[in-house]
Design goal:
Number of strands: 33
Largest sheet: 12 strands, antiparallel
Strand content: 35-45%
Number of helices: 5
Distance between the termini: 37 Å
Oligomer: single chain
Radius of gyration: 23 Å
Structural class: mainly beta
Length: 526
């Protein structure tokens, strides 16, 4: 049976024939704010002194919410090519405090501008110039994003070497991953035609790469979303595009201050940790970044930078098998009894989609999907691990947690990590007065943690410095167990981390629809 509907745009409101109505308004720093703050920072005497007579580039510039007070802070990463050092500069955007400059060994992915410069250099002056100019050789973003020289074998610290994959469209023997040293403008080549944690062989797997540019870290894009039905307010929340998301490597599609029918459910929900391990160590392991927005297809009205209310269901690479699109950011659309938020982002050759489905009955369904465009590594079996962080604030009150074996619950009074087993089947979060209750039910495809995946869930006290594990991790593996210190979590500000695990094999690469993971957050009424 055909279903017809009518769409009307007015003041940023998209109205359907059924009663749900979506409205959006831009909030938070704008792209112009980010530009102005960055320009002021680069002219600040403290920064001018640090960068005097140096060759440098701004790698990433973000304006982020300042904890516990009004205003925003800037976080700017600048690479000093002259001295081969990465600087992390922070401070309040009103410059009421002097900029704090620190040298850091953070592994910051190559910016889009760095990658473009590296490809341009190869086109102008390298053994690959003729092929790149003729179009026979295509360039692609590899993993890892920044490389080490064969002598140093380190991807952090030292010269800034940007990775570029190069593959002939007519000769399969021409395939190599090289580095471009942006300090010396020299090409770094590797003995096996790829750095030690990567591959460039005759065999390639994955979908065709459209080669469209991705966003860097720090783009403006935050909006207040209000969803109403005939009875009044249904859902209210703040949505943040991946490029503006929190965490050292971003956290994909992020929602904050999530209210259902006027009751606070979540202070924040996002995916700050994303990694992948290959069987036998063929490639990687990799800690991926979650801010480089990829193009997908969405038709509708832009209500904030990178925030689009869609007039029809958006389609990602997972729907079409096509890497090309017309929009980067978060698309929001309505179908039947739910509103869906969707984005697509990339890390090198990986393609990820992140969604939140918000249902009329109060159910929240986070979804994550995994795919890749053509490269050699993904021909081998590998395991993706995604870690959602749910900062519960049911009713805006202290919360408590229980875990169920399927027939009965037991309280969880202290910080704990969980592996899925007969005793740990699902979790229940309750407000202090038990007027609001949500069950966290694992998805049927979510898998179970192996050694590298660490665990399947963690219940922790909320701490502002535990948005991700970047300050404590020593490898690509999630370091969330270090947050488990035995603190009491009964009637406290509670955070739940939940992980999904997906085995990606060569056979999966031939399918249009790749893995789909995610728990279901279900309201319980009494």
């Amino acid at each position: 049976m055909l279903k017809y509907f009518f769409v009307t745009f007015f003041c940023g409101i998209l109205t359907y024939a059924n009663p749900l109505r979506i409205s959006a308004r831009q909030i938070g720093p704008t792209e112009e704010d980010r530009r102005i703050v960055t320009e002021k920072l680069l002219k600040h005497p403290v920064v001018l002194k640090a960068l005097d007579h140096k060759d440098y580039r701004v790698i990433a510039a973000s304006l982020e919410d300042r904890p516990f007070s009004s205003g925003v802070d800037y976080i700017v990463h600048i690479f000093n090519y002259t001295d081969a050092t990465m600087l992390r500069i922070t401070g309040p955007s009103d410059f009421s405090v002097l900029p704090k400059i620190q040298m850091t060994i953070e592994d910051v992915a190559a910016s889009p501008e760095e990658y473009e410069e590296a490809v341009q250099m190869l086109s102008e002056n390298s053994d690959f110039s003729q092929g790149l100019i003729s179009g026979d050789i295509v360039a692609y973003e590899p993993m890892p994003s920044t490389l080490a020289s064969p002598d140093t074998f380190r991807g952090i610290g030292g010269p800034r070497i940007v990775g570029v994959g190069l593959r002939s469209q007519t000769d399969p023997t021409v395939h190599e991953i090289v580095g471009v040293n942006l300090s010396s403008m020299q090409v770094v080549r590797f003995e096996n035609k790829a750095p030690p944690t990567s591959l460039a062989t005759l065999a390639v797997c994955g979908l065709p790469n459209a080669g469209q540019a991705v966003t860097g870290k720090g783009r403006a894009g935050t909006a207040q979303i209000d969803i109403n039905d005939d009875s009044g307010s249904l859902w209210n929340f703040v949505v943040i595009r991946p490029s503006a998301s929190s965490g050292s490597k971003g956290s994909g599609l992020e929602i904050r201050n999530v209210y259902y029918k006027g009751k606070l459910i979540l202070a924040r929900a996002h995916t700050p940790i994303l990694n992948v391990q290959y069987a036998g160590g063929v490639c990687g392991p990799y800690r991926d970044w979650s801010y480089a927005e990829n193009y997908f297809n969405a038709v509708g009205s832009d209500e904030a930078p990178g925030i689009r209310i869609a007039s029809q269901p958006p389609t990602t690479i997972f729907d079409t098998g096509n890497d090309r699109g017309n929009f980067r950011g978060v698309a929001i659309y309505q179908s039947e009894d739910k509103v869906t938020l969707v984005t697509e982002f990339s890390a090198g050759w990986y393609r990820y989609a992140s969604k939140f489905e918000l249902y009329s009955d109060g159910t929240i369904k986070p979804i994550f999907q995994f795919s890749a465009v053509r490269n050699s590594c993904v021909c081998y079996t590998h395991h993706h691990h995604v870690y959602w962080r749910f900062d519960f604030d049911l009713d805006g009150k202290p919360n408590s947690a229980l875990v169920s074996n399927g027939s009965e619950f037991r309280p969880v009074d202290y910080e704990t990590m969980f592996r899925k087993n007969e005793d740990n089947k699902y979790w229940r979060i309750t407000s202090s007065d038990e007027n609001s209750i949500y069950d966290v039910m694992p998805g049927e495809n979510d898998g179970a943690a192996d050694y590298y995946g660490v665990a399947d869930a963690w219940l922790l006290r909320q701490k502002s410095n535990e948005i991700d594990d970047n300050r404590i991790r020593t490898s690509t593996r999630a370091a969330l167990n270090s947050f488990v210190t035995g603190e009491n979590i009964f009637n406290q500000d509670l955070v739940m981390w939940y992980s999904g695990h997906f085995m990606h094999s060569h056979d999966d690469m031939q399918k249009d629809h790749e893995g789909e993971l995610g728990p279901t957050l279900t309201p319980i009424t009494r």
